[in-house]
Design a protein that fits this description.
The complex is a heterodimer of chains A (about 170) and B (about 300). With about 170 residues, chain A is an alpha+beta fold. Chain A contains five helices and five strands; from the N terminus they run E-E-H-E-E-E-H-H-H-H. The longest helix of chain A has 14 residues. In chain A, about 45% of the residues are buried. Chain B folds into three domains: about 50 residues, Uridine Diphospho-n-acetylenolpyruvylglucosamine Reductase, domain 2; about 110 residues, 2-Layer Sandwich (Uridine Diphospho-n-acetylenolpyruvylglucosamine Reductase, domain 3), CATH 3.30.465; about 120 residues, CO dehydrogenase flavoprotein, C-terminal domain (Enolase-like, domain 1), CATH 3.30.390. In chain B, the strands form four sheets. A five-stranded antiparallel beta sheet of chain B has the order 4-5-10-6-7. Chain B has a four-stranded antiparallel beta sheet with strand order 11-12-13-14. In chain B, strand 8 and strand 9 form a beta hairpin. In chain B, helix 5 packs antiparallel against helix 8. The chains are: A alpha+beta (about 170), B alpha+beta (about 300). Chains A and B meet through strand 4, helix 3 and helix 4 of A and helix 2 and helix 6 of B. The structure holds flavin-adenine dinucleotide and FE2/S2 (inorganic) cluster (FES) (2 copies). Chain B: It comes from Planobispora longispora.
Chain lengths: ~170, ~300
């Protein structure tokens, strides 16, 4: 069995993996990183998106063995203890999720988009999130959230939420 | 689903990869090459393929990257779609490749999926095969027996089938640089974002004093293999491009007529784009609708490429 070394959310693991083990199953079933869900069998939905060596990939379409010696960041590695990442905060503030199944992937894809396009237009956001499907929201609040997250990540003070009522408990 | 079991081999060199593939072929094993995995892994997950082993080329040095080689651009088979898009050499010298690659899948798939994998997979709905045909690219294959060249016109043999022999690896493609008198356009029709082409048209047009001197048209998803629209290419030769404004006739006007009411010979020629094609029927479109799309999209692509 291939023996791999992989860093996930800052911790380095050595694992023996069956060749057919998918990266997403390594993350969820072996390392307990259940923040990354699986939504399809075809590579279409993007729910499983993570960063592999700094670039977004669909972790259901990468073998764990292919991630040998790589650095993986999942949704669980974004925030610090008790503190959300600005993009997570923006999704919360703009009410950009309903069931939340697509959200981890959406947030990873959004952060990936900002690598090249720190101040994306709405069209660029829609194109950047092309590989991520949401069955609940209709995308409008997601686009708003990414705009807001981009502003916050570039250091601007966030505007008040525009996406309807937001309740905090 | 979880794929069926297979062995995983990660060779350290291209030679080693070729020998592994030859030995596997000799012992009758079904060994498959793994590049970006963006077509192969979904097939394994759906259990539509059961290879006994995967030979992962993903980390082989030398198969990845774009090189300006004077009269042509060499694109290594393992160059990802994302790397192709970021290459200034591709954008400057083979812009048609960049135009089509930009429409492939989504950013995450483009980070993994490779140029060579798209061609070797030979999905007739894939965007790059039609481009390789339109540009008359040359495919370079390597096996334990040595290297050989395969012209694009001979590469795509049937649905998901290529001229690559068992044990052969596609190592890269030579894309000829066409001169400044050529224009290019890739026109893709899809139902939604992130979708495969229902029909796509890759056009390369050489203009000479306001006339079309030569047109090369590759068709995506108009048959079991990508095709050249040869009848339309012939019909376009020598036609003036000044006629019409590229916007097409007003809705309801007769086919072949230009906005000013006169016939547009370029549109008539593009009306033959589906000649000889055998478009598939699926839930997105019937063959007659695909033929219609091929005619309309060819006109748009030729207009844009000769503008
Ligand atoms: C959600 C989604 C949407 C997509 N949308 C599009 C689209 O709109 N347009 C489009 O064109 N494509 C699309 N694709 C496919 C994508 O372009 C893939 O990257 C490509 O088809 C395969 O490249 P790969 O490197 O991932 O190949 P792999 O999946 O690794 O391999 C595919 C096949 O080619 C063989 N192979 C690969 N490389 C070589 C080589 N160097 N030598 C010999 N054989 C080789 C493999 O053995 C396998 O049979 C999409 C894929 C997904 C998952
Ligand atoms: S689970 Fe990975 S793309 Fe759907
Ligand atoms: S919030 Fe339910 S799928 Fe997007």
């Amino acid at each position: 069995m291939p023996r791999i070394t992989v860093t996930v959310d800052g911790i380095t693991y050595e694992e023996e993996v069956e060749p057919r083990l998918l990266l997403v199953h390594l993350l969820r079933d072996r390392l307990g990183k259940t923040g990354t869900p699986v939504g399809c069998d075809t590579g279409n939905c993007g729910a499983c998106t993570v960063m592999l060596d700094g670039k977004s990939v669909k972790s259901c379409s990468v073998l764990a063995a292919q991630a040998d010696e790589c650095d993986v960041v999942t949704i669980e590695g974004l925030g610090r203890a008790g503190e959300l990442h600005p993009m997570q905060q923006a999704f919360h503030a703009e009410h950009a999720l309903q069931c939340g199944y697509c959200t981890p992937g959406m947030i990873m894809a959004a952060i990936d988009l900002l690598r090249d396009t720190p101040d994306p237009s709405d069209e660029a956001i829609r194109e950047g999130l092309e590989g991520n499907l949401c069955r609940c929201t209709g995308y409008s609040n997601i686009v708003r959230a990414v705009r807001r997250g981009a502003r916050e990540m570039s250091g601007e003070t966030p505007a008040p939420a525009t996406g309807g009522e937001v309740r905090t408990s | 689903m979880i794929p069926a079991t297979f062995d995983y081999i990660r060779p350290a060199s291209l030679d080693e990869a070729c020998h592994v593939l030859r030995d596997a072929g000799d012992s009758g094993d079904d060994v498959k090459v793994l590049a970006g995995g963006q077509s192969l892994l979904p097939l394994l997950r759906l259990r539509l393929a059961y290879p006994s082993a995967l030979v992962d080329l993903g980390r082989l040095p030398g198969l990845r990257g774009v090189e300006d080689r004077g009269d042509h651009v060499f694109i290594g088979a393992l160059t990802t779609h994302d790397e192709v898009l970021r290459s200034p050499v591709v954008r400057e010298h083979v812009p048609l490749v960049a135009m089509a690659t930009a429409t492939v899948a989504d950013p995450a798939v483009r980070h993994r999926g490779t140029f060579g994998g798209s061609l070797a997979h030979a999905d007739p709905a894939g965007d790059l095969p039609a481009v390789a045909l339109a540009l008359d690219c040359v495919f370079i294959a390597r096996s334990a027996e040595g290297e050989r060249e395969i012209p694009a016109a001979e590469f795509f043999t049937d649905y998901l089938e290529t001229a690559l022999r068992p044990g052969e690896v596609l190592i890269g493609v030579r894309a000829p640089k066409l001169g400044a008198d050529w224009g290019f356009h890739y026109e893709k029709f899809t139902r939604t974002a992130q979708a495969w082409a229902i029909v796509g048209v890759a056009a390369a047009v050489r203009s000479e004093g306001g006339d079309i001197a030569e047109a090369r048209i590759g068709l995506t998803n108009m048959g079991p293999t990508p095709l050249r629209a040869q009848v339309a290419e012939e019909a376009l030769r020598g036609l003036g491009v000044a006629h019409g404004n590229g916007g097409g006739p007003a809705p309801g006007s007769a086919p072949g007529s230009a906005p000013d009411g006169a016939r547009d010979p370029v549109r008539d020629a593009c009306g033959q784009a589906a000649e000889g094609a055998s478009p598939p029927s699926d839930l997105h479109a019937r063959p007659d609708y695909r033929a219609h799309l091929a005619r309309v999209l060819t006109y748009r692509a030729v207009r844009a490429a000769s503008a």
